[in-house]
Inverse folding.
């Protein structure tokens, strides 16, 4: 049973380009979370999605950032017109509909904006 | 709003020692509490999950306890090893599937 898969592991973008980060949750999981982590800092919640729905995007910047979790395929975190301050590790986590299910994390995508 | 605190922020111990990491939370209305470890440059690995109705969970040398009424959890690591060196985070789950994370305790086990 594969875990949470994120790709790419490393992504380099120049300022102004777009970054697309992908997350495939664990099999059977329909809840996905995206977090951002800066070096030496804690996890910062960005967005919580279920299939085809954004449940909570209170942690996501209003501009340039968007997320989706379509009926088919992975969840996508999209950052338009990246700036140097977007450089961080972005983690995806998933859990199932079972209320006792633990949260599982992927290994993250490390975005570097040059 | 829920606040999760982990003290100490960093801990250094000699190999073989038993140690305790602390996690406290302000709102006791939680579904469960989960402990994770994070190695440098990696994601979070789930260690133990304690449901709100449980008092403790054990996995190998790890034992996690939960006192929901006082808003505290501890992670006990027995006979520490250099491979235990990592950052340990706790997270509580609340209604609406909201998760709140502590900022972690960075553990170094000295050979």
């Amino acid at each position: 049973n594969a875990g949470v898969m994120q790709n790419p592991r490393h992504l380099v973008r120049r300022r102004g380009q777009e970054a697309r980060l992908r997350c495939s949750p664990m099999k059977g999981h329909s809840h996905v979370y995206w977090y951002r982590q800066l070096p030496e800092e804690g996890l910062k919640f960005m967005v919580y999605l279920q299939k085809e729905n954004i449940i909570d995007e209170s942690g996501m910047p209003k501009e340039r950032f968007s997320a989706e979790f379509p009926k088919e395929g992975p969840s996508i975190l999209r950052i338009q017109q990246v700036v140097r301050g977007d450089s961080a590790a972005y983690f995806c986590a998933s859990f199932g509909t079972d209320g006792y299910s633990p949260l599982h994390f992927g290994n993250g995508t490390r975005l570097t904006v040059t | 709003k829920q606040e999760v605190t982990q003290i100490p922020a960093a801990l250094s111990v000699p190999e073989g020692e038993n140690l305790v990491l602390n996690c406290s939370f302000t709102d006791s209305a939680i579904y469960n509490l989960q402990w994770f470890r994070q190695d440098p440059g990696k994601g979070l690995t789930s260690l133990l999950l304690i449901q709100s109705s449980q008092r403790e969970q054990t996995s190998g040398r790890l034992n996690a306890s939960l006192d929901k009424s006082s808003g505290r959890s501890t992670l006990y690591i027995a006979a520490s090893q250099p491979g235990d060196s990592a950052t340990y985070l706790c997270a509580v789950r609340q209604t609406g599937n909201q998760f709140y994370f502590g900022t972690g305790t960075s553990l170094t086990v000295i050979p």
